[in-house]
C-alpha cells in the first residue's frame, strides 16, 4: 500500500473551508491558506515539509462537508490515496497532472477533492482530529533494583520498570502524579504511579529530554530539537510545534520556555501558541535570565532587575539590601520567583549571598557571610514546592527563614525536601534545618517521587521503587 513504511510523524491535516480558504496543520502548527486554488496550495505546503524531511508524509484531507480522506504526499508534490477503494461508482481520487502554477508551487503535484463528493452516510463518530494515534505500548515489568544501594527510605523492589533512551533522563510532573521519558524507539511516553501509559507520541531522534513547563498559563510537557519546540497539553492531545530560528536554544530556567538567539547575544523570545514574541525594551548591558509566561526577567551585573512584558513598558525592580550590606556585588542567577544576589560588606572583603523575591525585591533568605570568591562555583538547587533550597554550601529553609553553612557540601539533586549531594567528596543527604547523613557509595539518587514510588535510573532502565 502507499503508506507502507512511512512514519506517522508529523501528523498532518489539510482542512478545506471554501473555494479560497484552507488550513494545514503540521504537528499541531497551523498554516492558514488563502488562495484561488487552496487545495493545490495546501498540497504544495505539505510537499515542502516532506522535502525538508526527505521522505513522503501522511496527511488527512478534510472537505468542507466533513468527509475526510487519508493521503500520502511526496516531496515532488505527487499525491496518493491510502484507501483506493471507491465508496460509490464515482472516482474518488482523480490525479490531475500539474502545470504552470503547480510547477511554481512545488513541481509535479496533484489535486484532491476535485470531483463530485460521495454523499453516502458518514461515520457518526469520526476520530477526534486532535487526538494522538494509538502506538505500541512499551514493555513495563516489575524487577529488583540490585545494581546500587537504594535511596534512604526506599526498598530494592521496583513495582514497575521500563527501558528508556540511552543517555536520557526522566522528568516528574510538578504535582508528582506522572513521569515522562523518552523511549528507545523514539517516543515520548507518560506513565502514572502504577506504570500505566497515560499517553505517548513519536518524537524526532534528536529530541532533548522532556521538561514540564507552562505556555499561555497552561501546564504542558515539552521537548526541543535543533529546529523546533514541541509541547503537549496532556490527556492524549496532539502536540503543538513551534519552529525555531537557526542557532536558537530553548532555556527552561523560568516557569515558561525562553528562546535564546545565539545564546542571547542576538536577543530572545517568549512562546505563545505556535508563535515567538521577541523580548522588548532590553536595557543595555543587561542579561535575560528567564521567562514567566509573556514576561521576562532581566538584570544588569550589578543590578537592578527588570521585568519586560510583551506590549508593555519596561519595569525596574529595585532590590532591598540585607542588614550589613553596602551595595550589590553582582546578580548571580534566577529561578521562578527568586533571584540570587551577592552583596558587598562595608570595609570587608566578605560578601553576603541572599535570595530575593522577583515580585517585590525583598530578601527572602540571607546566607552567612563568606569570602568574596566562595559563591562563584555554588550551584543553585531549589525544590519544586518552594520550601527548601541549597545554594552551594548555604542550606535554606524558606518556611523557617533560617539558613546555615555546610562546609564542603556540593548539591546534586533534590527530592521533595531532601537534598542529595556530596560532603567532603562522599555521598550525603540533608534536609535544610537538620543534620547531614552520609550514604554508601554509589547510592542511587531519585529523579522524583511519583505517587508512592521513587524514580531511579540505572543503565537506561527506569525503576519505580516501593517504600520500605
Task: Describe it.
The longest helix is centred in the first third of the chain and has 16 residues, at 38-53. With 468 residues, the protein is mainly beta. The model is unreliable at 84-129 (pLDDT under 50). It is built from two helices and 40 strands.
Set down the secondary structure blueprint.
Layout: E1 12-16, E2 21-26, E3 29-34, H1 38-53, E4 57-62, E5 68-73, E6 79-81, H2 101-105, E7 141-144, E8 154-163, E9 171-172, E10 178-182, E11 187-192, E12 197-202, E13 211-215, E14 218-224, E15 228-232, E16 240-243, E17 248-251, E18 258-261, E19 268-272, E20 275-278, E21 286-292, E22 295-300, E23 305-309, E24 315-317, E25 325-335, E26 338-345, E27 350-357, E28 363-366, E29 370-371, E30 380-382, E31 388-391, E32 394-397, E33 402-405, E34 409-415, E35 418-423, E36 426-430, E37 437-438, E38 448-450, E39 453-458, E40 461-467
Parallel strand pairs: 1-4
Antiparallel strand pairs: 1-2, 2-3, 4-5, 5-6, 7-8, 8-40, 9-10, 10-11, 11-12, 13-14, 14-15, 15-16, 17-18, 18-19, 19-20, 21-22, 22-23, 23-24, 25-26, 26-27, 27-28, 27-29, 30-31, 31-32, 32-33, 34-35, 35-36, 36-37, 38-39, 39-40
Amino acid at each position: 500500500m502507499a503508506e507502507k513504511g512511512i512514519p506517522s510523524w508529523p501528523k498532518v491535516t489539510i482542512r478545506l473551508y471554501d473555494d479560497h480558504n484552507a488550513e494545514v496543520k503540521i504537528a499541531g502548527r497551523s498554516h492558514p491558506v488563502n488562495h484561488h486554488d487552496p487545495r493545490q496550495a495546501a498540497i504544495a505546503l505539505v510537499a515542502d515539509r516532506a522535502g525538508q524531511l526527505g521522505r513522503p508524509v501522511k496527511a488527512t484531507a478534510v472537505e468542507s462537508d466533513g468527509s475526510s480522506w487519508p493521503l500520502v504526499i511526496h516531496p515532488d508534490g505527487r499525491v496518493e490515496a491510502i484507501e483506493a477503494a471507491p465508496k460509490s461508482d464515482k472516482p474518488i481520487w482523480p490525479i490531475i497532472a500539474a502545470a504552470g502554477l503547480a510547477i511554481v508551487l512545488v513541481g509535479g503535484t496533484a489535486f484532491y477533492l476535485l470531483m463530485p463528493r460521495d454523499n453516502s452516510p458518514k461515520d457518526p463518530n469520526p476520530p477526534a482530529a486532535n487526538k494522538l494515534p494509538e502506538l505500541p505500548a512499551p514493555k513495563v515489568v516489575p524487577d529488583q533494583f540490585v545494581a546500587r544501594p537504594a535511596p534512604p527510605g526506599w526498598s530494592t523492589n521496583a513495582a514497575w520498570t521500563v527501558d528508556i533512551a540511552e543517555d536520557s533522563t526522566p522528568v516528574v510532573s510538578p504535582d508528582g502524579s506522572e513521569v515522562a521519558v523518552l523511549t528507545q524507539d523514539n517516543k515520548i511516553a507518560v506513565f502514572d504511579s502504577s506504570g500505566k501509559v497515560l499517553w505517548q507520541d513519536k518524537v524526532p531522534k534528536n529530541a532533548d529530554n522532556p521538561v514540564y513547563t507552562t505556555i499561555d498559563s497552561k501546564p504542558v510537557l515539552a521537548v526541543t530539537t535543533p529546529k523546533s519546540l514541541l509541547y503537549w497539553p496532556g490527556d492524549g492531545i496532539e502536540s503543538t510545534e513551534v519552529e525555531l530560528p537557526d542557532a536558537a536554544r530553548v532555556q527552561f530556567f523560568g516557569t515558561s520556555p525562553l528562546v535564546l538567539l545565539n545564546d542571547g547575544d542576538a536577543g530572545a523570545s517568549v512562546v505563545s501558541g505556535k508563535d515567538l514574541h521577541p523580548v522588548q525594551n532590553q536595557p543595555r548591558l543587561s542579561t535575560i535570565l528567564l521567562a514567566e509566561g509573556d514576561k521576562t526577567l532581566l538584570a544588569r551585573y550589578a543590578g537592578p532587575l527588570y521585568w519586560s512584558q510583551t506590549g508593555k513598558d519596561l519595569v525596574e525592580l529595585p532590590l532591598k539590601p540585607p542588614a550589613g550590606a553596602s551595595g550589590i556585588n553582582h546578580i548571580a542567577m534566577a529561578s521562578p520567583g527568586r533571584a540570587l544576589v551577592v552583596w558587598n560588606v562595608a570595609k570587608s572583603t566578605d560578601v553576603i549571598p541572599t535570595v530575593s523575591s522577583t515580585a517585590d525585591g525583598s530578601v527572602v533568605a540571607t546566607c552567612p557571610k563568606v569570602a568574596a570568591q566562595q559563591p562563584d562555583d555554588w550551584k543553585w538547587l531549589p525544590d519544586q514546592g518552594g520550601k527548601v533550597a541549597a545554594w552551594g554550601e548555604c542550606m535554606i529553609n524558606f518556611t523557617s527563614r533560617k539558613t546555615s553553612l555546610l562546609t564542603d557540601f556540593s548539591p546534586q539533586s533534590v527530592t521533595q525536601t531532601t537534598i542529595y549531594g556530596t560532603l567532603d567528596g562522599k555521598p550525603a543527604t540533608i534536609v535544610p534545618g537538620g543534620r547531614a547523613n552520609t550514604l554508601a557509595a554509589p547510592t542511587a539518587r531519585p529523579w522524583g517521587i511519583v505517587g508512592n514510588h521513587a524514580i531511579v535510573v540505572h543503565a537506561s532502565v527506569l525503576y519505580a521503587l516501593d517504600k520500605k
